[in-house]
């Protein structure tokens, strides 16, 4: 029963942000509301914080960030201080692409681990949390200025800039048209996604 409850909670959280974004777009409420994204809730939903931030950003709904994180091996809100430089870099990439999140910002909705019982632990936690976000911003700025990672992403999805790709993206292509095109083109030539190169470029900015 506990396992089923955890599965249901994860499934519910998994779709909540996308559903809320879709609702606000259809309402229409974009421009009236912004979303506060909590990284720990992304962990609980089986997503990365970057995934949730990008979902909000591309829908024009990114407004504030709870700068915390969770333990992927447990099924509850641990609200830990963010100390992962790579995750902080991905978070800041979303912030830069969003041209900032003003008038929102970052807040440390975070707590000490239960084993940390000294007063100085709270002091250290806030310092390392702020330093992590600062290093993430510097890394993200380096990646944006370099442009190599963005170019790989552009090439990976460049088929959506083609005539048929643009029609699909605009919702103007039906299955009859797609069937006709497939028969005309024959077997597709699959281009490499260059995943390892993308990871190397990302790691070089750390």
TrEMBL record:
GO BP: D-xylose metabolic process
Enzyme class: isomerase
Catalytic activity: alpha-D-xylose = alpha-D-xylulofuranose
Domain of life: Eukaryota
Record-linked InterPro entries: Xyl_isomerase-like_sf, Xylose_isomerase
GO molecular function, one term: xylose isomerase activity
Keyword terms of this UniProt record: Carbohydrate metabolism, Isomerase, Metal-binding, Xylose metabolism
Record-linked SUPFAM superfamilies: Xylose isomerase-like
Coiled coil: none
Keyword Magnesium: no
The protein's Enzyme Commission number: 5.3.1.5
Protein's UniProt keywords contain Mitochondrion: no
PANTHER family: PTHR48408, XYLOSE ISOMERASE
Family label: Belongs to the xylose isomerase family.
Protein name as it appears in the record: Xylose isomerase
Species per Swiss-Prot/TrEMBL record: Trifolium pratense
